[in-house]
Design goal:
The model has no long low-confidence stretch (mean pLDDT 96). The relative contact order is 0.15. The chain folds into 2 domains: 216 residues, UDP-n-acetylglucosamine1-carboxyvinyl-transferase, Chain; 206 residues, Alpha-beta prism (UDP-n-acetylglucosamine1-carboxyvinyl-transferase, Chain). Helix 1 packs parallel to helix 2, helix 1 packs parallel to helix 7 and helix 8 runs parallel beside helix 10. The protein has 433 residues and is of the alpha/beta class. It contains 15 helices and 24 strands. The structure holds uridine-diphosphate-2(N-acetylglucosaminyl) butyric acid. Uridine-diphosphate-2(N-acetylglucosaminyl) butyric acid binds next to helix 1, helix 5, helix 6 and helix 12.
Length: 433
């Protein structure tokens, strides 16, 4: 198995380009099931989650062709309705096949994905929404079975205990675009990835109003057609790179970003007195050298446009190395703190109380052997490793490969000393760990 070996303490310098958004590409791939015509999707990140979704679509009967490193052509001529456990358990986002299968075939059978390291991930709102749209829904033998002969538009309220649901909103939109009548979704997720999915569906001929808001109106159409679409830039990858620049006190330019999608992060950088410039026209954010020490911050994760849960762990790494008291509260996934015990191994001082963490920032972190547990926790450990003194070894980086394309190469281009190494090859160096 591969691990990352990082020699910390180098300030990052230079320029790096962000790829397409994983969390937009996944539902867009699923949406290709809504037509038998060919869809061409560009700016797709080359990630294990994407390759997995491609395999899933092929399993359902679609022709999936990777035209080049970042372009796919998908043609879902004849498809069937069952996504088995062996596939779904490998990627929880498979649940976003539910909406398009119901829309296209009026029938879906999808395995429930099971446990997740970042906490319980229920899909009750998806099921409630499908019932409102006239479907019969049952959970049997670990599968969600949907009979959608009665699918038709209706009014849906999609708010839950933690706010709106991103994939639940994607599912309802994808079921509604081919449902007779009008669907109104209130408390819809307004994440940029949902907006991008709506742009894709509109190119296919769907009638959707209210893009980017919490209120969507969808008028069902009889059929959709193929189209050509380029996936929007990944705001979470952009944020991670920006924070990598910030934690090392370097100067980096992150290109192909949409600053308007990252207001909460940029606001937090301002509060932390981390100097930066952003230019929406040129689609860049530049992190500037820090001539004074950073300030601690208070972060509360919320649905968009609030501070994204997917950047909480990375921001915490930066605050662990920022003298003073910082406070973090997780409102989306109250248990999403797997990075904390690993950051402690690197010398961080963090205490937990329910869904909150108090970070007593210091001016030093130290390299250590640590374990990646989920995608964003892994990114947090990379950031801490870049700034820590000495060598950090991060095991199980397959988590990182789910959401960051060749992260080590892009960091190397910015001057970081990081390499991907086969664990067996450095067994002696690792010692007993
Ligand atoms: N929720 C419910 N019931 C539901 C659905 C969700 O209670 O039926 C709760 C969840 O338990 C959670 C909250 O609502 O507390 C938000 O969940 P949501 O459905 O919005 O999350 P998701 O769609 O499963 C997507 C991203 C996640 C990201 C979250 C929040 C994809 C493929 N995944 O998940 O991304 O953290 O939205 O923004 O889009 C990641 O990329 O690392 C990642 C985990």
């Amino acid at each position: 198995m591969d691990l990352f070996r990082i020699e910390g303490g180098r300030q990052l310098r230079g320029s790096v380009q962000v790829g397409g958004a994983k969390n937009a590409a996944l539902p867009i791939f699923a949406a290709t099931l809504l037509t038998g015509e060919t869809c061409r999707i560009r700016n797709v990140p080359d990630l294990s989650d994407i390759r997995f979704m491609a395999r899933m679509l092929a399993h359902l009967g679609a022709r999936v062709e990777k035209v080049d490193a970042h372009t796919y052509e998908i043609e879902a001529g004849e498809v069937h309705h069952r996504a088995p456990y062996e596939l779904v358990r490998q990627m929880r986002a498979s649940v976003c096949l539910l909406g398009p299968l119901v829309g296209r075939l009026r029938k879906a059978e999808i395995s429930l994905p099971g446990g997740c390291v970042i906490g319980p991930r229920p899909i009750d709102l998806h099921l409630k929404g499908l019932r409102r749209l006239g479907c019969e829904v049952a959970v049997r033998n670990g599968y969600v079975e949907v009979e959608g002969a009665g699918l038709r538009g209706d009014y849906l309220y999609l708010g839950g205990r933690h706010g709106s649901t991103v994939t639940g909103t994607a599912n309802m939109i994808m079921a509604a675009v081919l449902a007779p009548g009008t669907t109104r979704i209130e408390s819809a997720a307004c994440e940029p990835e949902i907006e991008d999915l709506c742009h894709f569906l509109r190119k296919m001929g769907a009638r959707i109003e209210g893009l980017g808001s919490h209120y969507l109106k969808i008028t069902g159409v009889d059929r959709l057609r193929g189209c050509d679409h380029s996936v929007l830039p990944d705001r979470i990858e952009a944020g991670t790179l920006i924070l990598a620049g910030a934690i090392t006190g370097g100067e980096i330019t992150v290109r192909e970003v949409i600053p308007g999608h990252m207001r909460a992060l940029l606001d937090a950088l301002e509060s932390a007195e981390i100097p930066f410039e952003s230019d929406p026209e040129q689609r860049l954010v530049r992190v500037l050298p820090q001539d004074k020490s950073r300030r601690p911050v208070e972060i509360i994760t919320l649905p968009h446009p609030g501070f994204p849960t997917d950047l909480q762990a990375q921001m915490m790494a930066v605050m662990a190395l920022t003298p003073g008291l910082s406070f973090f509260t997780e409102r989306i996934y109250p248990n999403r703190f797997m990075h904390v015990p690993e950051l402690l191994r690197m010398g961080a001082d963090i205490s937990m109380e329910g869904p909150s963490a108090v970070v007593r920032g210091s001016d030093r972190l130290f390299g250590a052997p640590v374990m990646a547990s989920d995608l964003r926790a892994s990114a947090s450990l990379v950031l801490a490793g870049l700034a820590g003194e000495g060598t950090t070894y991060i095991r199980r980086i397959y988590h990182l490969d789910r959401g960051y394309e060749q992260l080590e190469i892009r960091l190397q281009q910015l001057g970081a000393v990081v390499e991907r190494v086969d664990e067996e090859a450095i067994r002696d160096e690792l010692g007993e760990w």
